[in-house]
Amino acid sequence: MEIVVDAMGGDHAPTEVVKGALRAAQTLPLPITLVGQRAAIERALAGQPLPPTLSVLEAPTVIGMDEHPARAVRSRRDSSVVVGIERVRERGGAFVSAGNSGATMAAALLVLGRLPGVARPALATVFPTQQGRAVLIDVGANADVRPTWLRQFALMGSLYAEKVLGIPHPRVGLLSNGEEETKGNQLVQEAFPLLKCAPITFLGNVEGRHLPAGVADVVVTDGFTGNVVIKLAEGIAETLFALLRRELTATLPRRLAAAVLRPAFRRVASRLDYAEYGGAPLLGVRGVVIIAHGRSDARAIAAAIRVAKEALDQRLVEAIAEGIAATGKEEDVDD
């Protein structure tokens, strides 16, 4: 199966997207298709020949980052996002985009549709922790949610952690303002007993401080809160390294010390770099859809393509469909 990449999506498209696809094509033994404006893609190639596993699919229009997602998808069926996802529907495989995330989600729902029994798809992202990695779900697909949706998010996030990240029996926590079962807003309090009875390894409530500590392998929340969490974490990491850089270069003795510690700093920076983790899978739709960071460079795009391949290899969509079907919770579906 092929991986279809939105060549026109992202702040640095198409140049960095094309570079990322070329990098991925060197290591991944499967076809990669760049979808977008052929002339722009060829300019980004700068005369470099396409490897045998890389091809171009024409899509004449582009959905901008500031456009209304659903409206743009319905009116721009010849855009790179819609053409790319239609290719996945027709041939199977996966779709990767660093473009308008709302448009990518809208196109996935319109073209691919939800898996049977899934109330709402959710975005899951990998979050670096002291213990390794954790999955945070939802991080932006659903700003307002219902308790039953959080239960499904927990199940889908657990399956992703197990199948793609290789974490056996992932520990699942519900993000709250306290560990006690009685803590949290109405949504959290109503979701708690549902997660407690779900076929997952449920730890109970976890606080924000528990996420970077690695207490849980999967942390469940609504898309509004999850999006705030990841953007706050990203900002804190950038601020921390900016402050360290300023302090460690202030005097000659500090610069000498920094030179000795540079390898350690680079390893830590790599652990905290979003580009290392590729992108966020949209779980619950009938296909593999990876939404990469809008600022993705070539390295991040290559990582997102790798994540897409891992999801295909582990039959993630099939695993989620089977997991949802096994719960028999038809009342969770909301049309």
Task: Describe what you observe in this structure.
This protein is of the alpha/beta class and 335 residues long. The protein is 47% helix and 16% strand. The protein is built from 12 helices and 11 strands. The protein has helices at residues 15-27, 38-45, 69-75, 80-91, 101-112, 147-163, 186-196, 210-213, 223-248, 252-272, 298-313, 316-327, and strands at residues 3-6, 32-36, 54-58, 94-97, 122-128, 133-137, 171-175, 201-206, 218-220, 279-283, 288-292. The protein has an 11-stranded mixed sheet with strand order 3-2-1-4-11-10-5-6-9-7-8, with helices on both faces. The longest helix is centred in the C-terminal third of the chain and has 26 residues, at 223-248. Mean pLDDT is 90; it is low at 330-335.
